[in-house]
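Hi support team,

I submitted a single chain yesterday and got back a structure, but I'm not sure I'm reading the token output correctly. Could someone confirm the output below corresponds to the sequence I sent? I've pasted both exactly as they appear in my results page.

Thanks,
R.
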Amino acid sequence: MSDRAKTWLAALLALGALGLLLFSVRSVNVADEAGLTLRPAAQAEPASDFTLPDAATGRPVHLLAEARAHPVVLDFWATWCGPCREELPSLNRVAHKYAGRAAFYGVNSHDRPADIRAFARLYGMTFPTLSDARHDVASQYGADALPTLVIIDTRGNVRVASAGYDPQLDLEAALSRILDALLAGNPRHAARV
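Hi R., thanks for writing in. Yes, this is the structure output for that exact sequence:
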């Protein structure tokens, strides 16, 4: 390989590393300045419907069918995302607290189902993860930064969409207030959490 080709190869590798660094920095953005904010029903947008397979069982999950029964929390994540791992214990506790009253699903468009299952076992993930292999659902929900939390009410409307993880935010308390308000049918109590 000529010196010129080696120089170009080194430049391309450096550019690729810079791109990867910028992408990973984007994944650690903290939650928006307002924290997790419950949108008033009148301002909520309809959720994009989808059916995705559960990474552990292969069983198809139809989003709006789930949302008709109870609020749905979607957590867009990846195995390599540090902030995703940091928020997981809080999500596990809230998922356990609201079992039977709210549905929690991880949505992963970055990893193979086998890697998702291994991660779930290793980190004690208590709620199912859906495999979004074509990245369609993440794109529909604008989940460009990880983690991204989306909460859908029983009318099928997106009431919360928040990208990033803020370690200063009491995620467990914020999610509990939002879910309590949605379950009570009176979201005014949690207009800002």
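A quick pointer for reading it: Residues 16-34, 186-193 have pLDDT under 50 and may be disordered. Let us know if anything else looks off.

Best,
Support desk
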